[in-house]
Structure formats: C-alpha cells, structure tokens
Amino acid sequence: MEQNFNKHLGNKLKIRRLSLGLTQTKVAKAINVTFQQIQKYEKGTNGVSSIRLLQLSNYLKVPINYFFEDYSEYLLNVDKSKESHMNINYNFLVKIYSEFTEDQKIKFNKNIQIFGSNISKVG
pLDDT, tens digit, for every residue of 53-99? Predict the structure, then answer.
C-alpha cells in the first residue's frame, strides 16, 4: 500500500507542478531539496515526509488533502471516519436528550422544528 501511495502522491505532485508551470528545480529550491529528490517523489521512488508534504502544499498552494484525493484507501477511511463520527454524535445527543426535563424537551423540539424549516428554505 505504501508504494502505491507514494506513486499516487508523486503523480498528484507532478500534475500540480506542471499546472503551475514550475520546474522540478524551482520546487526543489522552494522546499530546500535537490531536483533529484523531487524526481524521486514524482516517480514514487521515495516517500514524502510530513514536513515536506506541508512545505509542498504551501508552495503549490493546495490543501494537504489534495495529495490524498482519489486515493482509494483514503476514501474508504474517510467514509468510515464520517460514519463513526456520526454514531458518536448521535449517541451523545440521545444521552443528553434523555436527561432533559419535559420542559427542556419541549423547548428543544420547538427549536429543532424552527431550525429544520430554516434549512429547508435555504436548500
């Protein structure tokens, strides 16, 4: 998997570099490495450290997740993370709601109805 990711990241790096009209040398100087290192990154021969990834994203003016986009393992983990996060939030809300007094539940439900109608007007 690591080798596949290195190739994926290298391809994303090359695409972005070329779209900005930059040479490997120019990118290398900006992040204080040799142009050969940029070649190795782009070929997927060498992995990119977290600090270099941050430097590349800043210099190329892309968010770090740009390098992870379209990578199947990343997309699977994002979906799992969202699903897990929603379950945690849902469980938390159920717990809090169950501890409300009847008066608090009535107020909460009214606010939800108002909030829901505002969302449907915007969407």
Answer: 999 999 999 999 889 887 766 555 555 555 555 555 666 677 777 88
Query: What CATH number was assigned to the domain covering residues 2-67?
Result: 1.10.260.40
Name 8's Cβ contacts closer than 8 Å, sequence gap at least 6: 44, 67, 70, 71
The rounded distance, in Å, linking the Cα atoms of 27 and 106 is 59
**What's the one-letter identity of residue 16?**
R
* Domains of the chain, residue spans: 2-67, 77-122
Q: How many secondary structure helices (H) and strands (E) does the chain include?
A: 6, 0
pTM: 0.59
Are 53 and 46 in contact, with CB atoms under 8 Å apart? no
